[in-house]
Specification:
The structure holds two protein chains of two kinds. Chain A is an alpha+beta fold. Helices cover 52% and strands 16% of the residues of chain A. Classes of the chains: A alpha+beta, B alpha+beta.
Chain lengths: 378, 397
């Protein structure tokens, strides 16, 4: 048993950490967010071409470094530490993950563009009525000659304003909520009939409502695999978000420790008060458990679906609860200054808050775990 | 022991209900329904209507303009205003400095300030916290030095809510640096237009401008604007904090908040059922509502004690702790209820987007208000401090 990263993985992490330390301090991040585009494309370009990191999780045959889920996790953790607004999760973990899973000509056609930084993918899966149920889909993809016609509305599509491609879940048959008939399509983001309403999100990212009106897409846009493929891709994304959360939570905890040592009240640093010490110990334990669960789930991603899903749900449920605990207590320990825009801590709290619900809340994942594991034993 | 309303109470309730239905400003109601941000004039609109009716300060003694209502009637009033989703009036004049002035002020101060608080002519703000003095408020350093008939005030205050609109502020200042901390503080009423005062906005996590920094540089305050004796301001401050805490339980508003969550969860679909039928979600609403009942009944017991002549004491810390926790859990659950649509940031929707908002209307403010309400366990004496007060004053530890 070995839970350490190998030398290459360590190098990858250090490379990203150094780069982010130089380019992604809090003030710079806030300036990027405030621009019209909401990001600095130069960062993504540097990650691709100067550092070569966008290939870390891809096979060598596609021009990657031969890594996978572990590389995604360690990079996401580093992104979390600076609350990065880069489209790594959507483009590499989700888009790249789907392409790796289907392989063949589709993978060969798109992965090099991801690695070079030219391709940015947004994942259009959620629908207004659907909550976290991935099969609760009304968007239709109707067969039309050799291709399909897309119609529907996808909500809160992160990174869509920046995307060259959209990865869309749509229904080729079956009724809303039926697993059969749901398929995954990778399409050009600028096809006629696609409209967007772009907006910032409360955690500093950009997202869109995306509308499809009789959008003609080619037959080879279909990434075959149906709901099983979608489940797998979303499980990988969920673990990646948990890895990001470990970075966010670690910084919330670290920031709180630092502040409590500096802040003087009643003639001493507030870190001396036992009630705060115990709270910070509880936060520490949540951070450690989030790391453990993320590693646990990462190592289950290649297991059979049932085992994988059970592990991912346990991980996300635990991390969602932990992120809330750590975030809320970081703010409480900071006092008033914690709820201002001025300090980074509040922005970490906002990201932690949205991570709680991303790809399913604690309730959703406890429910999924119960159905997979507990009900079976009952 | 009896918890039923009397026939008189019920008649009073009907009167209040009818008054609100007939008099609550339609324009304000519209803004609230749309989720628009409310400005000074919005608050004053309702304030003036209540003032005209003589109902703006139910808690004040009759001689100063109170209503003379019994605690039960006051309870009914807060119930009914919350049930009708009336905005809460700004507390700084009515609930905070007003009671300090009628309790500790001179006849001149009472005559000058109380009518203008009641009428809404003066908008008040509170100059308490400083960058270095939060929980440890008594360590405050803003200094007032006597110069003839004036104090010359220098220092910095922070977290000053709505100071951007304020005509007057009540400030805790140090008038004796050599005395024991609590014994060198005075309570001053400061005209916010006095030269030397600078108000700077602090933007909070949801993007709101509620609080400010207030800088004071050689601000000259007439000695006649000191309330109570020099160096006895801490007495006023403690009195005021106890007052602030009773309102802070926010029971009526939380009741309304829970109903709003139910409305949201009835609209939100969770597969083939409304979210409110989801057993996990439903249980959380049930727990919240039960905790609120416990808080409400605790507050009623406390009110009954007050009616029997026992003023709000350290047990009001319990109301603050539990009340603020419930307020936070309500926003937490609302955010959870809206799923993906908690993410869009409504302040960023852009020009002309108002007609077709992103996602359901009820979702827009869920995340900002969740972030914003983290303040409730921090302000008015943080919940850690409230625990200390109970430990010391109630449990004698």
């Amino acid at each position: 048993m070995d839970f350490t990263y190998n030398e290459t993985q360590g190098m990858i992490r250090d490379t990203l950490a150094r780069f982010l330390a130089d380019t992604y301090d809090f003030d710079t991040r806030q300036k990027m967010i405030a621009t019209d585009a909401g990001r600095d494309p130069g960062i993504w370009n540097a990650l691709a071409n100067e550092l070569g990191l966008l290939g870390a999780a891809f096979d060598e045959e596609h021009g990657g470094l031969g890594g996978g889920a572990l590389e995604n996790a360690l990079l996401m953790e580093e992104f979390g530490k600076v609350i990065a607004i880069e489209p790594y999760l959507q483009t590499v973990v989700i888009g790249g993950g789907a392409l790796k899973a289907v392989g063949g000509a589709q993978a060969a056609a798109h992965i090099p563009g991801i690695i070079s930084g030219e391709t940015i993918i947004a994942f259009a899966y959620a629908e207004p009525q659907g909550r976290y149920d991935l099969a609760n889909i009304r968007t239709t993809a109707k067969a039309d000659g050799s291709g399909y016609i897309l119609n529907g509305h996808k909500g809160v599509v992160y990174c869509a304003p920046w995307a060259t491609h959209l990865l869309v879940t749509a229904r080729t048959g079956g009724s809303t909520r039926e697993r059969n008939g749901v398929e995954l399509f990778l399409i050009d983001a600028n096809l006629p009939g696609i409209t967007r309403r772009d907006y910032p999100t409360v955690d500093g990212n950009r997202a869109s409502e995306v509308y499809f009106e009789n959008v003609a897409i080619p037959g080879d846009a279909l990434l075959a695999g149906g709901m099983d493929l979608i489940d797998r891709v979303v499980d990988e994304a969920t673990v990646a978000v948990c890895a990001e959360a470990t970075g966010v939570m670690a910084k919330l905890h670290e920031g709180t420790l630092d502040y409590s040592k500096q802040r003087q009240q009643f003639g001493q640093p507030i870190a001396r008060f036992q009630v705060l010490q115990h709270r910070m110990v509880d936060m520490f334990m949540e951070v450690e458990q989030a790391k453990s669960m993320t590693t646990y789930a990462t190592l289950h991603l290649d297991k059979p679906a049932h085992e994988r899903m059970a592990a991912v749900s346990q991980c996300k449920a635990k991390v969602s609860r932990g992120a809330k605990f750590v975030g809320q207590n970081a703010i409480q320990t900071h006092g008033g200054i914690g709820i201002t825009q001025e300090l980074a801590i509040g922005h970490y709290f906002k990201r932690a808050t949205l991570i709680e619900g991303q790809f399913g809340s604690a309730d959703y994942h406890y429910d999924r775990f119960e159905r997979l594991v507990i009900d079976e034993a009952a | 022991m009896d918890m039923e309303f009397t026939v008189e109470d019920l008649a009073f309730r009907d009167e209040v209900r009818a008054f609100i239905a007939e008099n609550y400003p339609q324009e304000l109601r519209g803004k609230q329904d749309e989720g628009d941000e409310l400005g000074k004039e919005d608050f004053l609109a309702w304030h003036r209507i209540l003032h005209k009716k003589g109902w703006v300060a139910p808690a004040w003694p009759v001689e100063y303009g109170g209503t003379g209502w019994s605690p039960t009637q006051r309870y009914i009033w807060s119930e009914e205003t919350a049930r009708a989703d009336c905005i809460r009036l700004m507390p700084f004049g009515l609930s905070m400095v007003g009671p300090v002035i009628y309790t500790f002020g001179t006849p001149e101060q009472k005559a000058k300030f109380l009518p203008r608080i009641l009428s809404g002519e003066d908008w008040w703000c509170q100059g308490y916290s400083e960058p270095g003095s939060g929980s440890d408020l008594a360590s405050l350093r803003t200094k007032a030095v006597r110069d003839g008939d004036h104090y010359v005030v220098n220092g910095q205050k922070t977290w000053t809510t709505m100071a951007q609109h304020a005509d007057w502020g009540f400030f805790l200042v140090r008038t004796d640096s050599d005395a024991k901390q609590q014994e060198g503080i005075s309570f001053l009423l400061v005209d916010m237009k006095t030269p030397g005062i600078t108000v700077r906005p602090i933007i909070t996590l949801g993007g709101e401008h509620e609080v400010n920094e207030v800088w004071l540089e050689d601000v000259r305050v007439p000695v006649e604007n000191r309330v109570y004796e020099e160096n006895k301001g801490w007495t006023c401050a403690k009195f005021l904090l106890a007052h602030e805490r009773t309102g802070i339980a926010g029971v009526a508003a939380s009741k309304r908040g829970i109903e709003r969550i139910k409305d949201i969860a009835r609209s939100e679909q969770d597969g083939d059922r409304p979210l409110l039928a989801n057993p996990f979600f439903k249980r959380k609403v049930a727990e919240l509502q039960t905790d609120l009942t416990a808080l409400e009944f605790t507050e009623l017991r406390s009110l009954a004690g007050e009616a029997a002549g026992r003023g709000p004491g350290p047990e009001s810390s319990l109301l603050k702790i539990k009340g603020s926790e419930i307020q936070q859990r309500i926003t937490e659950l609302a955010l959870e209820a809206v799923g993906h649509y908690g993410a869009p940031y409504f302040r960023g929707f852009g020009e002309g987007d108002n007609e077709h908002p992103i996602g359901p209307d009820y979702a827009h403010r869920t995340a900002p208000s969740y972030f914003n309400m983290r303040k409730t366990t921090i302000y008015g004496g943080s919940n850690e401090i409230q625990h200390n007060i109970i430990a010391k004053m109630v449990l004698g530890l």
